[in-house]
Amino acid sequence: MAKTAQEKADLKAEKRYEKTHRKKFKATPGDIIFNILNYSIFTLFTLACIFPFYYLFINTISDNDLVAKGMINFIPRGLHIGNYTALLNVGDLSSAFIVSISRTVLGTALMVMASGLVGYLVTKQEMWGRKFFYRFLIITMYFNAGLIPWFLNMQMLGLTNTFWAYIIPGIVAPYNIILVKTYIESIPAELEESASMDGATHMTVFRKIIWPLSKPILATIAIFGAVGNWNSFTDSLMLMSSAPKLYTLQHRLYIYLNQASNLSALMESGGQVSEAVLKSALSGKVIKYTISMVTVIPILLVYPFMQRYFEKGIMLGAVKG
Q: What is the DSSP letter of 210?
C-alpha cells in the first residue's frame, strides 16, 4: 500500500529527530573510555563463564591419550565423537539418563501446575484461611529440620527406593508460588471481574484467562524447576541406596568422580597400580568429562528458548513483596 502524506511527513520528522539527536548527544572521551572498559570487562566475564564448557567439550572430542596426559587446553586434537557413542555401553548410564529426563519433565510439569494454581488461589480474598496458608508456606522457606530428619521423614512416608521420591517433595515450591502470586496480582482485575459477571467460575477464569496471561512467570519457574531437578543428586544418593536402577545421571557422575579421586590418592601414596587398572582410570577420566558435558547440554539447549520469558517473568514477578 502507498504511504499517505501524513505517514511520509512523520517519517521525515523522525529522521530529522534522529539526526538532531545524534548531533546533540555526541560521545565524550570519557564516554568512549567507559564503553571500552565496560565492554572489555563483560567480554572477559563472558569468556570466563564459557571457557569451562568449552574446555569440557574439546576434551570429549579430542584424542583420549592426549586428554589423559592433560595436553588438551585450548585447541582440540585428534577429533572424534567416539566418547559419546561409547557412553551407550557404560553400565546403567542409559537408565540413569532416562531417570533424570523423567524426573525433570514430570517434576517440573507438576511443580508449575501446582505453583500456578496455588499462586492464583492465595490472591483470592474469599479463600478460607488464605493468610494462614500463605504465611505457612513462607515460613517453610526459613526453617529447615535438617538432613537426618528429612531422611527419616521420607523413610516413614515410604518414599525411599522409589521414583516418586524425586517428584512429590518438589511439587510445592514456596518461592515459585510467591513469584506467581505477585505476577497474577499485576494482571488487571477487570479481566477477571468481567469474566465473573458472565458467569465464569474461579477455575474457568484461571484456565482461560490467568493461565495464558501468566506464561512469562510460568516459564521462569519452569526453568528453576528443570535446572533443580536435572542437577539434583543428593536425593538419589540418600534415598536410592537399594535401587541402583533409579540412580540419576548426576549420581552416576558422582560415582565416577569418586572412583577417579580414589585412584589418584592411591597413586600419590605410592600404591601399586596395574596397567589395566591405570588404563581403566584414564578412560574413566574421559568418561567423566563426557558425562559432565552430557549433563550440561540439555539445559544449554533449553535456556535460549526460555530466556525471553525468563527475563520478563522474573522482573514482573519480583515487583511486589
A: I
Report how far residue 171's alpha carbon sits from residue 114's, in angstroms, rounded to the nearest whole number: 7
- Is residue 220 within 8 A of residue 179, CB to CB? The reply is yes
pLDDT digits (tens, 9 = 90+) for 94-113: 788 889 999 999 999 999 99
User: Alpha-carbon distance 236 to 160, whole Å?
Assistant: 9
The type of residue at 127 is M
pTM of the predicted model, to two decimals?
A: 0.73
> Who's near 160: CB < 8 A, 6+ residues apart?
154, 239, 240, 241, 242
C-alpha cell at 21: 539527536
Please work out, in degrees rounded to the nearest 5, the angle formed at the alpha carbon of residue 131 by the alpha carbons of 128 and 133.
Answer: 75
pLDDT digits (tens, 9 = 90+) for 190-240: 888 888 888 888 888 888 888 988 888 888 888 888 888 988 888 898 999
Q: How much is the CA Rg of the chain, to the nearest whole Å? A: 27
